[in-house]
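anyone seen this seq b4? input:
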Amino acid sequence: MVSLAGAVGVLYLGNLARSFDSKTQTIPQAFPQETLRPAKPTHGPAAKAMNVLLLGSDSRGDSLNLTEEGAPSNQRSDTMMWVHIPADRKHIYLMSIMRDTWVGIPGVGEAKINAAMANGGVPLVVQTLEGMFKNRIDHVAIVDFDGFKAITDALGGVEVDVPLAFTPLHGKTDFKAGPQLLNGDQALAFVRERYAFTDGDYQRVKDQQIFLKALLNSVFAPATMANPATVSTIVNELSPYISVDSGFDSATLGALAVSLKSVRGADVTSFTLPTLGTGTSADGQSIVLRDDASIAAISKALQEDTLGAYLESAGLG
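predicted toks r here
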């Protein structure tokens, strides 16, 4: 019976792996040339830490068609998150980067960071961010916002503490302030909306952080992880909405999941990269002004794998 149980377990994990690897799309070229990248530390805590670039695509149901250069077509890359997983695997840090942040893009010059995707695809986004933070990105994942709907329904809903009451410009759901269980359609409306807020993208970024934290809390819940049927449904439903670099396969993701087995919702910290407010570029664009001092401090914290301590001292945790 023990042998049979082991065989069933192996078969179950094998099916999950095949489902993920076959249904996700691989980004043909996710990284810039090696000579253009910062080196990965070979010793110290940062050597075992992991940085993942998470891009949110509001394609509204369109497939993620990626060119050989890694540039998405028929979609908008509206969300950027730098996900930092420290060497001790006891926390997850989600850093949102405002899409209109005015930065230096290699080969382009000063522009909104979102322009990196339009001008050079995923490799240029990676190169731009690695140049800003002087740290290496280990993996890249692009998630279609429709994937939020799929995984929310697979979990039977996700409870979110809505900070501000609002009615989406395009939608039928009125969101009241306070905790509420969102279904897939409601989750999609929640993470997309920006027009209903006076500060637009700023609040949308906060809402996306709130939802992701609530989602991770649901996924990491013991009741979820101990239910093979639920885990299978999550993998099967979410995989078609994800594109990853070639190294971020089921084996890598599985090993990462095992290393994060003790992480719960309270161990996930989300914040937005500090800025100096909004302004206008020389050519008349409305932009978000970058905060070079904060970027330098975060860069140092990433290099030393002390991001948690920095966020606490800066009042961002």
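The CA atoms of residues 158 and 182 lie 5 Å apart. The first strand starts at residue 25 and ends at 26. kinda curious what u guys think
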